[in-house]
Structures are given as structure tokens and as C-alpha cells.
């Protein structure tokens, strides 16, 4: 209507041509836009200009549309490089109307009072599969255990007003959290009597629920004779992976789907598009949903309020003990994961690599040898006993190495570990553990801890057996020996 655009924030300076204009190790995230044009936004990474020039951190701003002024509410300094800070901010970054800022740092959810410059740790030791944030950023949910098979309660938090709801499993049952569909939380309920001992693939749920923050059930899925093993969220659609009990085991059956009742998406007034021209190649442009003035828009510059006091908050944060896996792909850091299997699958899909926190290669695409053989005599007794519990293995080998859960990976991805002389425990038929200690073009060499014997097993047969039993894998990685 006014044919005006406002440049609210930029590190660029039209009056200069120095490198600060183009250094791109920062990003901007819009948290909220009000009907009157007021806005809360976050700038994070390396600060090219301004009062924090040369520092790395997270700055929270409030923009007053009527005054055309941005005010810095708080600046959180950080010792992390931009790619690592980006991973934290994108996981959760929310500003409430009451002046509280929420973000995750080192797998801990913090509530930060921007007025008083104080902070509180709301929950520690969060992991990617036990902590979720809704698409709007307003709601967060986490479980009481990072072991997905041992969840007894789910905390559902409204970051706008700080209110929380706890979803608790009844005696003899457990829960599994799947995230959000819009602002409603998704979780499943499994009875202990339906769960076979020790198996991730056997966590079968008789119910899947969608619940809002008021405690109301939006959907309650339950079909007699069918169990759900996984829930995949696709926009407003949930795809349910199902099984039926046949004899003493569960067999996969057809998927089912449920939809959430949501309002239709509003048409965007302005959208970002890419156009290709002969002279300029690819050009990024703004496309309006309605006709606009043919006159060139007037670009206004937003102003900044100068604060008399320093708004910097230096948070004292200890490094998380949770193991992290770093996926590098497409020329940079793709993401940081706390689940080894997810990290490997992501790297495989993006032609990347996975590094551990001490810069060991956990996985490389296209670098698996044609064959490998591991000597049993060189392995700790804790590995040869082949427990199907990563925590149990980690405890038994803590002086010599580590245990990495690679659940969900393909056999081809797993054989990279064996080619690096790292034995892998796999879950086989009837839930029995097998230790993969070698392979060639046609066979695997598999050690049976129950009999103490090693034997050959066809690769195709092995792949089917391990896949049918949930693709449960645990890898033993020996510690790097420091050179004297």
C-alpha cells in the first residue's frame, strides 16, 4: 500500500567497500512478526560491525515498526565458531512477549531473562531423539530418558508463558515421543507385555496420540490386532509403520495414515523466487500475490537505539558429556548429531563424512575396503560377549575404547566399520547377538558369543536377517593411541 521497504538490519555499508560487507559467517532468524509490524529477531555468528564487532555470539533485537528502531535486548557471547553456533540456534531460538529468551546450548535448554541478564537451565542432557520443537518455535517437548525404550514421561512446555504439562505413562506401559505436527505433540504408548526383551524393533505401540497443550486429544489412533513401530511426520500427515503378531514374532503389514485437522495455509503476500535471465543468470526476486505499483519501491533504513549499558551476558557453560558426531558434506559442516546412526545415514545421503569429537572418522562414503578380517584375540572380553545394549558395552570397554550405536544403518554402511578393523555387534534372528568380525565379496565372518564359534554367513542372507530384526548395530571403536 505504501510502496516502501525497510532495511531493518544489515552488516553491509553502502559507503564503504571493505571485507566486512561480504564476510558471511553469521545469519538472521525472525522469531515473531506482529500485525502492527513489530518484530523480534536474532542475529548470530560473527559480528561484522557494531558494538560487538569481532565477537561471536547471539544478539536478540526488538524492532518497533512505528518508530522504525531496533533495540538490542541482550548479547550472548560465545566461544563457538559460526557453524556450531548455527546448529544450536536453529535447534531452538524463541523470544516470549514477557522478555524471556529460550535457546539450547551444549544439549541444555536455557531460559534467559533479558531484562535482568540472568539465566536458568530448564533441562540438561537433551538429545536429538528425545527433544523436539514445534514448527512455530513456541512449544518444546522432551522425555525423562534419552533411552527411547525407557520413557515414562514427556514434558510439554509452552515457551510463551512458561507453563508445562507432563504426560505420564500408566503402570506397565512406556511412551515414545515423535515430535510435533504443527503445535500438537505426537507420542505413542506401548505396553510392557507387548514389547519383546531388548529389541528396538520390538517396541510396538498399541496407541498413537496427537495432543495439544491444553491436554486435549486431537487424535487417538488404535486398531485392534495392529501395532505401530514408527511414526513419520510429513507436513500434516502421519505415516504409521505397522506390524501384526504372527506366532511368537511380529510381521510387517501395510502402513496407515492419519491427518491432523488444521486450517488451510494462508496465501503468502510476498514470496521469494529465483528467476533465470540471459544477462544476469540466476536472480533472486520478491513475488507479490497481488498487483503492486510499477514505481520503484522506496527503501528506508532502520535505526538502532544506542544502549547506555552493556547488554552482554557471559554464560558459564560446561562442555556436555554427550558424544557428538559431526557430518561434513557439500563443502562444510552439515550438522551435529548425538545419534551415530542418524549421522551416518545423513552423511551417506549427502556424500559426506562423519567425525567424532576427537576428530576420528566414524564413517566415510565410498571408502569401504573389499574385505577385512579382525582377530578375536585382539578384542576385549566385553566386546566378545556381544551385549545388545550400547551403555553396557560402553561400561565394559571404557578403558580401551567406546561404543557407538548405529541403529538404522544399512549393512553396507556398517561394513565400513569392519573394514577399519572395528567389530560390530548385530541383532540377529530371535533377538540373538552376533559379532561381525570380517567380510569379503560374498560372505560375512560372524562370531556367536553363545557357542564361542565363528562361521561364514552369506551377505544377502545377513542383510535380510539384520534388517528383519530392526537393523540394530553397536560398533566398538578403540581409543587412539597417543604418540610419545
Descriptive overview:
The strands form 9 sheets. Strands 30, 31, 32, 33, 34, 35 and 36 form a 7-stranded antiparallel β-sheet that branches. Strands 2, 3, 4, 5, 24 and 25 form a 6-stranded mixed β-sheet that branches. The protein has 484 residues and is mainly beta. A hairpin with a 5-residue loop joins strand 16 (207-211) and strand 17 (217-221).
Low-confidence stretches: none
Largest sheet: 7 strands, antiparallel
Strand content range: 35-45%
Tell me the number of helical segments per DSSP (H or I, 4 or more residues long). Answer: 6
How many strand units? 36
Shape: globular
Could you tell me the mean pLDDT? 89
Helical percentage: 10-25%
Quick structural overview:
The chain is mainly beta and 484 residues long.
Key features of this structure:
single chain, 484 residues, mainly beta, seven-stranded antiparallel beta sheet, six-stranded mixed beta sheet, 36 strands
Helix/strand layout:
Elements: E1 4-7, E2 26-33, E3 39-46, E4 56-64, E5 69-77, H1 82-91, E6 93-95, E7 100-105, E8 108-113, E9 118-123, E10 131-133, E11 139-143, E12 153-158, E13 164-168, E14 173-181, E15 184-191, E16 207-211, E17 217-221, E18 227-234, E19 237-246, E20 249-259, E21 270-277, E22 281-288, E23 298-301, E24 303-304, E25 312-313, E26 325-329, E27 332-337, H2 340-349, E28 353-356, E29 361-364, E30 372-373, H3 381-384, H4 390-396, E31 401-405, H5 411-419, E32 424-427, E33 433-439, E34 443-448, E35 453-458, H6 459-468, E36 473-478
Parallel strand pairs: 1-23, 5-24, 5-25
Antiparallel strand pairs: 2-3, 3-4, 4-5, 6-7, 7-8, 8-9, 10-11, 11-12, 12-13, 14-15, 15-16, 16-17, 18-19, 19-20, 21-22, 26-27, 26-28, 28-29, 30-33, 31-36, 32-33, 32-36, 33-34, 34-35
